[in-house]
Amino acid sequence: MDLPCLVIVCLCLVQVQKSVGQLQSLTRLQEFGLGNLDFGARLQVPNTSALIEKEGFNSETHKAEAEDGFQVHLSRIPSKGVPVLMNHGLFIASDAWLLRGRDKDLAFLLAESGYDVWMGDLRGNTYSSTHKNLTQRDPKFWDFSVQEMGTYDLPASIDYILATTGHDSVIYIGHSLGSTMYFVMCSERPEYRSKVRLMMGLAPAIYFKRSPGLLFKIARQYSRLYQESISFRGPRQVLPRNQLRGATASLFCRSAPTQNICLVILYFLAGLASLTDFSQVDKNLLPEFVRRLPTGTSPKTLQHLGQMSKSGRFCKFDYGPKENMRKYGTKSPPDYKLDSVTGPVALYYGKGDILIDVQDVAEVTEKLPNLVRNFTVANDKFNHMDFLWAKNAKQLVYDDMLKLMKLYT
Ligand SMILES: *[C@@H]1O[C@H](CO)[C@@H](O)[C@H](O)[C@H]1NC(C)=O
Ligand SMILES: *[C@@H]1O[C@H](CO)[C@@H](O)[C@H](O)[C@H]1NC(C)=O
Ligand SMILES: *[C@@H]1O[C@H](CO)[C@@H](O)[C@H](O)[C@H]1NC(C)=O
After folding, report:
1. Tens digits of per-residue pLDDT, 209-218?
2. Which atom of ligand 1 is nearest to the CA of 73?
3. Which residues line the pocket of ligand 2, CB cutoff 6 A?
4. Residues of the chain whose pLDDT is less than 50?
5. Cβ of 54 less than 6 Å from ligand 1
6. Ligand nearest to the CA of 363
7. If you measure from the C-alpha of residue 66 to the centroid of ligand 2, how many angstroms do you get, rounded to a whole number?
């Protein structure tokens, strides 16, 4: 790296550090109701169904109600084929699967191959933001982490899809946190294993102790802020999608010279491409990508990820020894059981992933009883968001996924 580039990286890091500090005041703003200006109804970027229709497909939207009352938003490209459920990762939404178009995005390729495509939205993001009897102003609304996503939301989504389509099982695809949910479900709700005929995890977030990515550094940092925010104010949404911020960021990323800074920030924060090679990023679409980032989650989700990243364990939320004893009967939180994942699992991961390190995934593969694909992407620079946004994702990843899925349909 040359000197100017290094300076830019340092500036970015300082900026990111500052924003960590600002997270706390952000939660405070929301206490006065200002945070709600950002939310839901004001969203003007084309939503998931608009993006589906733009490519000439039919779209449907559904709501699956989870056992604890949360309503999970599901978008569908309907067909009579085998249902495929896709869940995205942290700080993005279902629309991230659909930004490049018909012959490029995984969701469209699946639809063209005859699958019935369902895309979930993670609890607490822009789309999945309603509850049967709680509002977003209620602190209890935000009292969830990946534990609830795996225990309630994924089973509810699967049941809803099976009831709607009449099929008896789905194929599941999870990117990053979307795959974490599946492993939580297998451990917590073993009766659901038979309802998934194949699970495909892209950059699966199970162990991430080695991860040098900034997201986890922030998550670890955030653990401490959360302790304060929960005792004084109760939890609130973290980093919701904000139209103004999105528009500014997209302007910043539109053209040189700021576009290069934008790419470097995206590399560190989201895990896009490689510092030495951004050729696989479609620069024209960059503004589209960033205007949708981030899309909000709960503080507890960030804290849970921070805890797991610190401890190197795949385990339940750590409430501290006293509360753990009450909730779990043990001083430290119990591990999710990877040996309970008895259905077929295919894992795809990249050597250039700055959020999910290959060695961490390799460790997971050793513990899975029914691994049917152990797929390291054949490009050393392949990074975390490249599974969704890289120009070469189809050749490097999707083609193999489609081939494998055929064996299960
Ligand atoms: C998506 O946007 C369209 C307008 O483009 C609107 O009619 C529709 O209700 C929106 N869907 C959801 C689920 O918000
Ligand atoms: C809200 O729904 C949950 C889960 O269904 C239930 O346990 C709770 O009692 C309800 N609360 C109110 C105020 O109705
Ligand atoms: C999967 O591949 C990785 C990297 O090549 C390797 O370290 C690991 O042992 C493999 N896992 C299994 C179960 O074969």
Report:
1. 887 766 777 7
2. 13
3. 68-69, 132-133
4. 1-11, 13-43, 231-232
5. no
6. 3
7. 12
Residue among 71, 198, 145 nearest 306 (CA): 145
d(CA 335, ligand 3 centre) in Å: 22
Query: How far is it, in rounded angstroms, from Cα 295 to Cα 73?
Result: 14
Q: Which of 389, 398, 379 is nearest to 92 (CA)?
A: 389
The CA distance from 314 to 361, in Å, is 12
pLDDT tens-digit series, residues 148-180: 999 999 999 999 999 999 999 999 999 999 999
The structure tokens listed for 140 are: 């209890």
Residue 323, SS3 per DSSP: helix
Torsion of CA 301, 317, 87, 215, to 10 degrees: 50
Task: Report all structural domains of the chain as residue ranges with CATH numbers, in order of start.
Answer: 46-234+297-406 (3.40.50.1820)
Q: Is the pTM of this model over 0.85?
A: yes
Does the beta carbon of 376 lie inside 6 Å of ligand 3? yes
